[in-house]
Specification:
Blueprint: E1 8-12, H1 15-18, H2 43-46, H3 68-82, E2 86-90, H4 93-96, H5 107-122, E3 126-132, H6 138-144, H7 151-166, E4 173-177, H8 182-185, H9 187-191, H10 201-226, E5 231-238, E6 241-243, H11 248-270, H12 275-284, H13 294-300, E7 305-310, E8 314-316, H14 320-324, H15 350-364, E9 368-372, H16 390-408, E10 414-420, E11 440-442, E12 454-456, H17 458-468
Parallel strand pairs: 1-2, 1-10, 2-3, 3-4, 4-5, 5-7, 6-8, 7-9, 9-10
Antiparallel strand pairs: 11-12
The structure holds 6-O-phosphono-beta-D-glucopyranose.
């Protein structure tokens, strides 16, 4: 009983939240660079001015982030010390293709990741690579309108051809788009999409989503052709919906919300637009333009496994008063009165992870991979940078227990688990450094002050023990 022998324990990061070095090694500018900390972080959603470059009024945390660009050896060594079997990281697209539409890649960018993968292999760590984690080269945003343009599919295909060939034998596990459903909720930060006066926003989003879905199928095709060993996954921002009451309307509202998210991975996993989505699009007057061969591509190149992030369950209601009170999450959800919440209002629900895993496994019958889970919290280090983060250990142990139940009791096939932000990094949602997830503390604050020194938190040794016992010993 318990997790499989080759269970992939590890941690996850994303290029834009940890690398920094935004203008080094020939890297081009990306959408994720020009989003500042603070209330202007989502300018397009807020309908504020477009921010396609830096200005003097704002602080841009991704520019330096935690400077993993220069600290990666030290960081991987620490991951290895914890016993990581896998390390999930993402490629900076604009490091490899600075503009995005070149035919030839930037060798320095390619080499940067090759060195990282080799370093991982040195320690027996299997890289798990997200091809795009929210990022899109700014040149593609400005010249083509990012994913609203079909041309992006070709540029992404070019990127895939280059990386699958270059990293053959070094990388086996790939994710095509991080939290692909995020395009609906954070279009600029999540996919470089912005809207002009008069745009039919829904139409633009779903057309862009179609382009990503086709690109994802093409990536899966190339990955399998280049190396049959390659395993490709989709990636969903998951969290099952509970109805606020047993009122059938609330249950139905939850179903609708879930489908909005499932839509993406239904296509990636089953290979076709589901009937409910076609009906909904027709009702809303959304006409997704497909090219000849798209349907066949989607059908022929479905993903090998389903990966997802899980932070919380969500609640659906039809009560207008309750709808007013959102839980501080980008997935505006009603507060669940039975759950506690983090300092950022994210509700904590370990059983919800088991429920979500079962929902996904029942639906797809493909192996699952939990590629993000964790607690964003304020840490208070002592003079040596040591943090007694019992709250994090508590959160993680309860979630690991729930996922063990899903495996042991329910028979879910789970490939691995990578906690989010295994080393402190910049928050995607807020741009803050003080929302920390790591086992490793990084000395840097919201304004970019600090030595960038790394130090182990209490949870570092805890996770080391969890991995060493293959999830048997979760005690603090
Ligand atoms: C996921 C993203 O949505 O949640 C990560 O894939 C992100 O990039 C994580 O960092 C946690 O969110 P936040 O806003 O606390 O950083």
């Amino acid at each position: 009983m318990g997790f499989r022998k080759d269970f992939l324990w590890g941690g996850a990061t994303a290029a834009n939240q940890c690398e920094g070095g935004y203008n080094e090694g020939g890297r081009g500018l990306a959408n994720v660079d020009v989003v500042p900390i603070g209330e202007d972080r989502f300018p397009v959603i807020a309908g504020k001015k477009k921010m396609f470059d830096f200005d003097d009024e704002h602080f841009y945390p991704a520019k330096e982030a935690i400077d993993m660009y220069h600290h990666w050896k030290e960081d991987i060594k620490l991951f290895a010390e914890m016993g990581f079997k896998t390390y999930r990281l993402s490629l900076g697209w604009s490091r490899i293709f600075p503009q995005g539409d070149e035919t030839e890649p930037n060798e320095e960018g390619l080499k940067f990741y090759e060195d990282i993968f080799k370093e991982c292999k040195k320690y027996g760590i299997e890289p798990l690579v997200t091809i795009t984690h929210f990022d899109c080269p700014m040149h593609l945003v400005e010249k083509y309108g990012a994913w609203r343009s079909r041309e992006l599919v070709g540029f992404y295909e070019n990127l895939c051809n280059v990386i699958f060939n270059r990293y053959k034998g070094l990388v086996k596990y790939w994710l095509t788009f991080n939290e692909i459903n995020m395009i609906l909720h954070a279009p600029f930060m999540g996919a470089g999409l912005y809207f002009e006066e008069g745009d039919n926003v829904e139409q633009v989003k779903y057309q862009a989503a179609h382009h990503e879905l086709v690109a994802s199928a093409i990536a899966t095709k190339i990955a399998h052709e280049v190396d049959p060993e390659n395993q490709v996954g989709c990636m969903l921002a998951a969290g099952s919906y509970y109805p606020y009451t047993p009122k059938p309307e609330d249950v139905w509202a939850g179903r609708q919300e879930e489908r909005e998210n499932y839509f993406f991975i239904d296509v990636q996993s089953r290979g076709e637009y589901p009937a409910y989505a076609l009906k909904e699009m027709a009702r809303k007057g959304i006409k997704v333009k497909m090219e000849e061969g798209d349907k066949e591509l989607l059908k022929a190149h479905t993903v090998d496994f389903i990966s997802f992030s899980y932070y919380s369950s969500r609640v659906a209601t039809t009560d207008p008063e309750l709808l007013e009170q959102t839980a501080g999450n980008i997935f505006a959800s009603v507060k669940n009165p039975y759950l506690e919440a983090s300092e950022w209002g994210w509700q904590i629900d370990p059983l919800g992870l088991r429920i979500t895993m079962n929902d996904l496994y029942d639906r797809y019958q493909k192996p699952l991979f939990i590629v993000e889970n964790g607690l964003g919290a304020v840490d208070t280090p002592d003079e040596n940078g040591y943090v007694e983060d019992d709250y994090r250990i508590d959160y993680l142990s309860k979630h690991v227990e729930a996922m063990r139940d899903a495996v042991d009791q329910d028979g879910v096939d789970l490939l691995g688990y990578t906690t989010w932000g295994c080393i402190d990094l910049v928050s995607a949602g807020t741009g803050e450094m003080k929302k920390r997830y790591g086992f490793i503390y990084v000395d840097r604050d919201n304004q970019g002050n600090g030595t960038l020194k790394r130090s182990k938190k209490k949870s570092f040794d805890w996770y080391k023990k969890v991995i060493a016992t293959n999830g048997e010993d979760l005690s603090n």
